[in-house]
């Protein structure tokens, strides 16, 4: 990495926090409509109010950023602002706000509410949500009442010379995260961070004639994340007393591309490299902790990772200190410790990729030696590329592993080896296996309950009492 990256400073929080924290009580000429919508969680129709902002915030493709605001739920509200205040704030930020009123229904609680989160994201992705066909497919959010959104929080400045693609990308973009938090909270809550398995990288536009040099902020691209995998875990976390954040994936280029300078094309196909990945993960955690302190969060941070997001997120769990990993990015000196991690199928130790043939990791088998040299001659260097290397003592964060046994075999090998090392050190581990089929995320009530229970044990969020129906 360039030395300038090591001296990055997080931009002052005060000016940014004002834009996220203050309620703007200015007259807003908005168009609103009301109606009813069938609800997956309650099995009944619920009231819908949709309001467009006077000055809409648009995504890169020109579609309105949308917040689906779930209100009057079946459990107590942590944010002390009224729903009218929080909706007015969202409109002042340019969001289209679609309010779903659950009337304190007894089933509008975790994990039943996740069914509706899945249905909402699937409908937005299909272009048919509450009469709207133009909601953003990667800048739309499901927020629980009392929660607000700190969007585009910078956490690192990318170095284009790590992956050297595309050739025109020579000035590093900022990487960002989105943070969903309770505003004016009655009690401090922990937060779960995930590294996206979509990407926001600079790329070519649709006619292949012009390079897009800006971050497209596709962390939550529905086709690749929420709707593509029926993933409701993060957005459902507030029903369990937990805030959430999602960050740009550390590999800031197409997952199938990347090469060393003057190296073979696509040498980095299907994997990431250190120190770049570890530096970004640790900077993201430090940044999140600083923002959490300002927003009244508890300071406890968990990691949720799936697929390439699991590979990235696993860099956070180990207790080994590597100065090259620690002393880069923002907020250097702030703790980058996490208190727990749920890791799905991913790659944690690249020295294992030759354990079996035809097990799904042929891209790495062929290409890792192109940039790291032969394994036999460079074993220790290969170890530093994976997160297993960072696991040193029992101070490593507790981990829940989740995977399906009909997924690619190499994932099971990776999990087995990392779990065995954690177990040998006395690090608490648990497993959630065959909750579905293939390369998938837990989405059943039973599997989601197990995931949330794990984080409740280690992050200690406030218990939320249920409320009576209206």
Short summary of the structure?
This protein is 26% helix and 18% strand. The chain is α/β, with parallel strands linked by helices and 470 residues long. The chain has a domain at 3-9 and 153-459: Alpha/Beta hydrolase fold, catalytic domain (Rossmann fold, 3-Layer(aba) Sandwich).
Write the layout of secondary structure elements.
Blueprint: H1 3-6, H2 13-21, E1 31-38, E2 45-52, E3 66-71, H3 83-92, E4 96-101, H4 113-126, E5 140-144, E6 147-157, E7 174-182, E8 191-195, E9 203-204, E10 211-212, H5 233-236, E11 243-247, H6 276-295, E12 301-305, H7 308-313, H8 323-326, E13 340-343, H9 362-372, H10 379-384, E14 399-403, H11 409-425, E15 429-433, H12 445-459
Give a verbal description of the structure.
- The protein has a domain at 3-9 and 153-459: Rossmann fold.
- Helix content is 26%, strand content 18%.
- The protein is of the alpha/beta class.
Q: What key phrases describe this protein's structure?
A:
26% helix, alpha/beta, 12 helices, 470 residues, Rossmann fold, 5-stranded mixed β-sheet, 8-stranded mixed β-sheet
